[in-house]
Amino acid sequence: MPKKVIDGLTVLIDRLICVGFEDCVTAAPAAFVMDGDGVADFADGAEGTPGAAVLEAARACPVDAIVVLDPEGKQLHP
Ligand code: SF4
Hints:
With 78 residues, the protein is an alpha+beta fold. The chain contains 2 helices and 6 strands, in the order ββαββαββ. It binds iron/sulfur cluster (SF4).
């Protein structure tokens, strides 16, 4: 599962459940892109995205494929 630390938040993309509706890309285009298979992945430079935008993108995902943990490891979403 792809994982990055963005603005202090640990972000994981569960690519097995992503259904490719791109809501995350719409919400935070600096953090997420669609790959050639139509599945979400991290954008180059995703680390520079504000944490609020990443959380908004995670909340926009219809299948909760984006998991966000705070710096202490507490799950913020889903
Ligand atoms: S919003 Fe969720 S299901 Fe849609 S592309 Fe992003 S990760 Fe995949």
